[in-house]
Amino acid sequence: MLMGPMKPHGTYKLAYRSRQRSFPAALPTPRKASDRLEGLLERCAREERREQRILDSLRAEIVDAGGGENLRIRRVFAKPREVYRLELSLPDLGYQRTTFLDRDALEELLEADDVREVVEASCLGG
């Protein structure tokens, strides 16, 4: 059996094969400014709905957890933008959730009376 020279470790044989390039039948038509604006608005609306679902989920879990040692909110950054870290433990489920929120999202989360009561009770140690 005839063997060629050994290749250094970490080198690989590259396969050179002709690849057929497929071109689209027609070039895409340029999008209008109104189409781009609609796409941007749709993306913003989708992101806002996602943010709302996250806040709703947090509200439900905070009320279920009951506060105390299960909830911690700390400011992580002050500048250039205030960012808060919310840690929520549900020991019965073996679950811990960590979420980072900006100031506006935290204020929106605390607008619900039941959530505010739980947060105030956990801050007071009760």
Mean pLDDT: 78
Structural class: alpha+beta
Spatial order of strands in the largest sheet = 1-2-3
**What would you call the shape?**
flat
Distance between the termini: 81 Å
* Major sheet size, sense and barrel closure: 3 strands, antiparallel
- Count of helical regions: 3
Tell me how many strands there are.
3
Order of helices and strands: HEEEHH
Please estimate the helix content. 40-55%
* Low-pLDDT residue intervals, each spanning 5 or more residues: none
Rg, rounded, reads 27 Å
In what range is the share of β-strand residues?
15-25%
Task: Kindly describe this structure.
The protein has 126 residues and is of the alpha+beta class. The protein has a domain at 37-124. It is 41% helix and 18% strand. It has 3 helices and 3 strands. It has helices at 33-65, 103-109, 113-124; strands at 71-77, 83-90, 95-102. The chain has a 3-stranded antiparallel sheet with strand order 1-2-3. A hairpin with a 5-residue loop joins strand 1 (71-77) and strand 2 (83-90). Helix 1 packs across helix 3. The longest helix is centred in the middle third of the chain and has 33 residues, at 33-65. The model has no long low-confidence stretch (mean pLDDT 78).
